[in-house]
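Example for tutorial group B:
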């Protein structure tokens, strides 16, 4: 018997252990196994690494948007619109997660503005 939508288990993707898709992988950009129809990470991809585990010192070439100087020094709307990790362009999913670290964004924004 097919379950209704209300009976299906809801997954909390804010928890790291539930973030297993290729979009959360640090190696997504260079992956040769990535298939949008199949979640390779869920199948036990040996190269899968969570983005959160990245070394933040390897992030460079940051470009920002949403900078409103009337909001100095908070810059609440500023966000990283592009960046490189270890010499490779970061994915949208990685940038979204990186922008959740407001302390990192704020620190790098001040470096960017100097």
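The residue assignment follows.
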């Amino acid at each position: 018997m097919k379950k209704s939508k209300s009976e299906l288990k809801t997954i909390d993707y804010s928890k790291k252990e539930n973030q297993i898709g290729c979009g959360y992988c640090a190696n997504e950009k260079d992956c040769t196994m990535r298939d949008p129809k199949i979640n390779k990470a869920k199948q036990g991809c040996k190269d899968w690494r969570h983005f959160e585990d990245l070394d933040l010192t390897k992030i460079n070439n940051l470009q920002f948007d949403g900078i409103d100087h009337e909001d100095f020094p908070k810059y609440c709307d500023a966000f990283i619109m592009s960046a490189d990790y270890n010499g490779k362009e970061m994915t949208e999913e990685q940038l979204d997660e990186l922008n959740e670290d407001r302390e990192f964004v704020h620190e790098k924004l001040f470096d960017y503005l100097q």
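Residues 11-53 form one domain. Compare this with the pattern of hydrophobic and polar residues in the output above.
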